[in-house]
């Protein structure tokens, strides 16, 4: 059996809301140490990787590793029933059919609500993500990154990122004009959560679809900070840490300008 | 054509090897297309008022129309096509080709009869059966593809075999054809209906060889033998052995030699001098150009050249051709979106099976076993 309790339903709500437009059905891998999920979007451009370690939960019990196939749209419906402060218990019993039970409890009112969600048959591929030494790692306030992506999207459907030791530049260039956002690594900010930090081993210049970036930034609600890890010609990682005990990562394949075989 | 009943066998025994996809799921993929087969389809399917499209001089243009628009549709969806043309047919196909000539002769007779009777519907049916791709049509299509900047590969022998080899060499993602024998030739991925007309909204069926083998618990050699038993273009089959029995026999006996030793040959007579060994050899090591030596380049299309050819010589509407070309240019210049699964490789399959599904599978399993009991092939009395 599997049983896990979160102190706040809000956390799971935010997670589901930020990935449900990207991924329709996904397998939740539950093991002794963590609950995790990996899924590609339907067109195989982006990959979502979620990890919720045991430390995030108030109680956690998982007798053996299981994959729970769930529709994110249905999960979202279930979670809409909960208030953000309600505790959230997830329960799955092998002998009790094909459902997961979400129990939302409001301790102040002594109220509990059980929502049962049918599981799905899923047959998907798990991708092995190789260790990558990224040339550029940039951390900034999540809200700042969200605004930048939104601003550039009005001009272009393609986002160019260049980074050198001097700073990181986000460019959107389109038919009506362009928008260029430059961050120089800030050293004088007192407030650590507002700082933009940049580690550059080698300069990069990469292009991505802005549509996907905008979808990723729905996870802004999860975390104050976002970390971008970049390298030329490999997928970017956009990571939102979840408290100290987990993360939501998005991998996005770059756009390739001139391919070897194109003349 | 192809392997008789193979797609049904796969659907019955290895359902997870078939994925149904929309065309846009294939963006960024390079695909090898069996050109001869799709030309033939264009000639049959693209018609107006029951007859083929023609230029002012009365020359057929259905093949050019099909090739032009369907290719642009693929490029619109981010697919990079490579067309592979048949070379000379293998010697072993002569039997099959003779049969086809016979059938043509029959159709011709039926056509004259229908015409005499004035039965237009029947006449059209037989006319379609008589369709044959001419050498000139092949050349015209190659010329058009050249102008469009699409790579063309001339196979030394069978196009499907060449396509399969390009897939194996990692030059392309899969083979697009309706003939299932591309799988027998070892194409890891086979796409059906990729060139189906847009209006029909037929989804693409993707067959994965590795999963077929895994689910049916067959090796590639055993799979080839199974295909020969089912019926291929190169030799006959054992009379009385249908798809169901063929699967059972191969699973039990592993190869045709042992199958022959164990069946009652008076009840199931194999063809005289059955050349199954040569057919096997042909599937295993067909005459192909080595895939890793083939260079594929997608060049800038020659718009003026296409307009001159299609509108000047073949009477296509210039406006339409130009607007289609503009669309193609736009998709080409958009910069290709990479695929995440080309950076990260599949490490494992994740399966979430609900109890309901598992029960259904167990039921199906039982049914299969029950079926087996009712009619096992009789062993030869020793």
Automatic annotation (TrEMBL), chain A:
Compartments where located: Nucleus
Subunit field text: Homotrimer. Forms a complex with activator 1 heteropentamer in the presence of ATP.
CDD domains: PCNA
Protein origin, superkingdom: Eukaryota
Main location: nucleus
Record protein name field: DNA sliding clamp PCNA
Species whose genome carries this gene: Caenorhabditis nigoni
Gene that this polypeptide is encoded by: Cni-pcn-1
GO cellular component: PCNA complex
InterPro entries, alphabetized: DNA_clamp_sf, Pr_cel_nuc_antig, Pr_cel_nuc_antig_C, Pr_cel_nuc_antig_CS, Pr_cel_nuc_antig_N
TrEMBL record, chain B:
MF-aspect GO terms: 5'-3' exonuclease activity; 5'-flap endonuclease activity; DNA binding; magnesium ion binding; manganese ion binding; RNA-DNA hybrid ribonuclease activity
All residue ranges annotated as the XPG N-terminal domain in the record: 1-107
Cofactor comment text: Binds 2 magnesium ions per subunit. They probably participate in the reaction catalyzed by the enzyme. May bind an additional third magnesium ion after substrate binding.
Matching InterPro entries: 5-3_exonuclease, 5-3_exonuclease_C_sf, Flap_endonuc, HhH2, PIN-like_dom_sf, XPG-I_dom, XPG/Rad2, XPG_CS
Cofactor: Mg(2+)
UniProt keyword Phosphoprotein, yes or no: yes
Main localisation: mitochondrion
One GO location term (cellular component): nucleoplasm
Statement: the UniProt record of this protein carries the keyword Lipid biosynthesis: no
GO biological process terms, semicolon-separated: base-excision repair; DNA replication, removal of RNA primer
Composition-biased stretches (Basic residues): 369-382
Subcellular locations according to the entry: Mitochondrion; Nucleus, Nucleolus; Nucleus, Nucleoplasm
Disordered: annotated span: 360-382
Family according to the record: Belongs to the XPG/RAD2 endonuclease family. FEN1 subfamily.
Function: Structure-specific nuclease with 5'-flap endonuclease and 5'-3' exonuclease activities involved in DNA replication and repair. During DNA replication, cleaves the 5'-overhanging flap structure that is generated by displacement synthesis when DNA polymerase encounters the 5'-end of a downstream Okazaki fragment. It enters the flap from the 5'-end and then tracks to cleave the flap base, leaving a nick for ligation. Also involved in the long patch base excision repair (LP-BER) pathway, by cleaving within the apurinic/apyrimidinic (AP) site-terminated flap.
UniProt protein name: Flap endonuclease 1
